Amino acid sequence: MLFTVADARAAGISRGVLRGPRYRQVLGPVYVDATVALTSRLQAEAALMLTPDAVVSHDTALSLWSADDRAAEIVHVTVRRDPRRTLPRVRGLRVHEVQRLDRALRAGLPLTSPERTFVDLSPYCDLTGLVCAGDSLVRHSDAEPNHLVETALAAIGVRGARRAREAAALVRSGVDSPMESRLRLLLVFGGLPEPETGYVDPLPLPQAAESWRLVPTSDAES
Predict the structure, then answer these.
(1) Alpha helix (H) ranges present in the chain?
(2) Which residue, among 133, 136, 112, has the nearest Cα to 122 in the 3D structure?
(3) Structural contact between residues 30 and 44, judged by C-beta atoms closer than 8 angstroms
(4) Which of 43, 54, 175, 177 has the fewest CB atoms within 10 Å, i.e. is most exposed?
């Protein structure tokens, strides 16, 4: 169960004890019992405690949509822009502001939709990284590649919109991993035919390789 420094003080827990081995700092003034693993979801929950009207966004939303439990150095949330609002200044927390807040739910947590998450990431990713993100979002949600294309086309005047449109056109369904995404792009950018995604070859691996007529070589053999 997450709690703040103020909660600890009210419960009679001193700062010295709080900083000891019994507790783990999650984000800024938010702590948890040391036996609880630090995950992306736990970080998101802590961020929402500090910004109650926010939604999880950007890389953190990507992690939640993709079921990636690895903790990150920066946790991202987005709030509706309000000049009267005082944003928390917490190390490891980045709060983005927008005029119109996009909101979806994933396992009970408010976060940006897969389509909005994709566009939000476009200023911070290169083309390959953004395609990998799009492939993952499509793989783990009900978003389709054409949904990303439509959202990117509608993002007029948005920072990174051109890259979002270019990447969206390269996103495919049925991709199992970022490595598969990168390999597909390597082939396409190299002028080779685009491989089919989500295809399970019924042939044993040696026969499948023979049917493709692919012969791996090293630099020493070439």
Answers:
(1) 5-10, 15-18, 40-50, 58-65, 114-121, 127-140, 145-154, 161-168, 178-189, 205-212
(2) 133
(3) no
(4) 177
Count of Cβ atoms closer than 10 Å to residue 102 Cβ: 18
What are the beta bridge partners of residue 18? none
CA distance readout (Å), 187 to 132, 174, 194, 203, 209: 14, 17, 7, 22, 16
Q: Is 219 exposed, middle or buried (0-12, 13-18, 19+ CB in 10 A)?
A: exposed
pLDDT at 165 over 50: yes
User: What is the tens place of the pLDDT at every residue in 63-80?
Assistant: 999 999 999 999 999 999
The b-or-e profile of 169-181 (16+ CB within 10 A means b, else e) is ebbbeebeebebb
Residue 157 · residue 82 · CB < 8 Å: no
When pLDDT is averaged across residues 46-59 and rounded to a whole number, the result is 96
Give exposure, 43-76, as e/b (b: 16+ Cβ within 10 Å).
bbbbbbbbbeebbbbbbbbbbbbbebeebbeebb
Q: What is the mean pLDDT of residues 98-105?
A: 93
Residues 128, 184, 140, 49: what is their CA dihedral angle, to the nearest 10 degrees?
Answer: -20
Distances (CA, A) of 47 to 9, 125, 133: 20, 23, 22
What's the pLDDT score for residue 217? 42
pTM, two decimals, is 0.86
